[in-house]
Amino acid sequence: MIPFVDLKAQYLSIKDEIDTAVLKVLESTQFVLGSEVKALEQEFAAYCNAEFGIAVNTGTSALHLALLAAGVGSGDEVITVPFTFVATAAAICYTGATPVFVDIDPVTYTIDVNKIESAITERTKAILPVHLYGQPADMEPIMEIARRHGLTVVEDAAQAHGAAYKGKRVGSIGDIGCFSFYPGKNLGAYGEGGMIVTNNPEYTHTMQMLRDWGQEKRYHHVLKGYNYRMDGIQGAILRVKLRYIEEWTEARRTHAAQYNYLLAKSGLNTPVALAHNRHVYHVYAVRTTQREWLQQQLNAQGIQTGIHYPIPVHLQPAYADLGYQPGDFPHSELAAREVLSLPMYAELSSAQVNQVAQTLQNILQGVAA
Ligand SMILES: *Cc1c(COP(=O)(O)O)cnc(C)c1O
């Protein structure tokens, strides 16, 4: 069996370091924030080429606080894509603002920059591009449009730790960048976690207060805040794992190149990474009109796959009140019907990648394996 992800394999590869780091936190009793979390903030910000890091409890909280720091609130609009994980849109709604969707580019699955300007109104406060699957959105035109209209850019980099656009690490290209450390992400905690990075000291101060009950100092609540603090144990674990992220990312990129090569003549559409992007392959998604059938056949032969994501946010029942209809975002809707994510994690062996590709070819050629 080849699983879609294998968190155990990664843990076993660094078990001694992780166990030592966790025990150290237990001994220190710095269970919430504390010195490990503070060190992680500095190290992760440096990794993103950003000045400040603010550790939080989830990627969703990171997005929520970034939008609040940018001044987004009730009555405002934030431009984003419907082809994303639901958290992107949910975080906008938490602030009281309204998500305004723009379709994706069908090749990269990131926001179609040619459709942003016509979505801007007097209420627009921010643009929230998503670096979906680990491929950076087209940030140069996004920043240019944002500057021209006085908008803040918040990057949803939850799937894109270490990805780069024209040589710049994601998270530090826009005004604020948001990351998730959900266990299955490229850099995953052993529980929940998230991080915000920025070069802006005022945003930093605001977000540091908001994640900890809006306190300027203990029991002095200057803002209506939240309990969005990171656990000390997660900070210590993530510091260990951050030392391996480049190695793991290169392994993902090697697996993707091998899949691309082996599937070139399969008839499937393989992912397209633009030349100026460093794609970090959180997800390796192929495209096929026979998705359900192919997924079943692979499953029957012991190969697990995923679908990211089967229903775009504008067609989710929870967001029906936004008033969108089927057909509003054709590229997002077609991608949602056709994408299929193949097994992808650093610890996959080249033999396993080969087996996945071979099984796919056999199925597509109607040959029983
Ligand atoms: C995972 C994810 C989030 C949310 O992160 P959590 O840590 O699960 O809250 C937000 N946006 C995208 C694109 C994601 O993939």
UniProtKB/TrEMBL annotation:
Molecular function GO terms recorded: transaminase activity
InterPro entries registered for this protein in UniProt: DegT/StrS_aminotransferase, PyrdxlP-dep_Trfase, PyrdxlP-dep_Trfase_major, PyrdxlP-dep_Trfase_small
Sorted UniProt keywords: Aminotransferase, Pyridoxal phosphate, Transferase
Top-rank lineage group of the source organism: Bacteria
SUPFAM superfamilies the UniProt entry points to: PLP-dependent transferases
Family: Belongs to the DegT/DnrJ/EryC1 family.
Protein name in the entry: DegT/DnrJ/EryC1/StrS family aminotransferase
Classification lineage: Bacteria, Bacillati, Cyanobacteriota, Cyanophyceae, Nostocales
